[in-house]
Amino acid sequence: xxxxxxxxxxxxxxxxxxxxxxxxxxxxxxxxxxxxxxxxxxxxxxxxxxxxxxxxxxxxxxxxxxxxxxxxxxxxxxxxxxxxxxxxxxxxxxxxxxxxxxxxxxxxxxxxxxxxxxxxxxxxxxxxxxxxxxxxxxxxxxxxxxxxxxxxxxxxxxxxxxxxxxxxxxxxxxxxxxxxxxxxxxxxxxxxxxxxxxxxxxxxxxxxxxxxxxxxxxxxxxxxxxxxxxxxxxxxxxxxxxxxxxxxxxx
Length: 251
Ligand SMILES: O=C(O)[C@@H](CO)OP(=O)(O)O
Known about the structure:
The protein is of the alpha/beta class. The protein has one domain (3-247): Phosphoglycerate mutase-like (Rossmann fold, 3-Layer(aba) Sandwich), CATH 3.40.50. It has helices at 14-18, 31-46, 60-72, 99-106, 108-116, 156-176, 187-198, 236-247, and strands at 3-9, 53-56, 80-82, 181-185, 216-220, 232-233.
């Protein structure tokens, strides 16, 4: 049996628009981002791709993107499962910093190492920073979160390590039950998932960028291997242009 998995990065956020490193800071969608989410949902409906269940992070840009897209697809009523494990990569001390200024201050190599290396995290964010999530009740142990063990910074490797247990325990069973699964998440948590699905090397994943608000559809075989490497965007040309723009942020 083929399984259908749809990945959707949130629409443009206020900090995407301002070109700031965001990570776990819970910023809202812009009007353009809301429109992207609606358009993504319309594309799903037009393609006859109707999610049976949606998994999101605990961040409003993904939560609201899922709601807007599902409403546009007339699937606003399906079950929602949320987890901090789908959150954006914690960007450490870069959270709240301007990407262009960071590039100018630290240079291309350090900037790209922090942004796209597999295993080098940015410096940790101090708990007394205005951009810290330490103590945020949504990440408490009583709410199913990591509590005090919550990250203060992460590299992509760390994201994969915290995401995969959720994939195995919550998403795989939905796929195996024959459900069409929508994962509404973030640039780097979806890069972690794509790396896993397509078995992309630690070096090659640096070159992969995911555009905002564009559904990426994977048909998976019985072993949950993609039948088409890299999946398929419903609007491939627009997705390629938007992914290139993500790659060029800061320039
Ligand atoms: O700032 C962030 O949290 C992410 C996604 O917007 O940025 P980048 O693409 O630079 O990893």
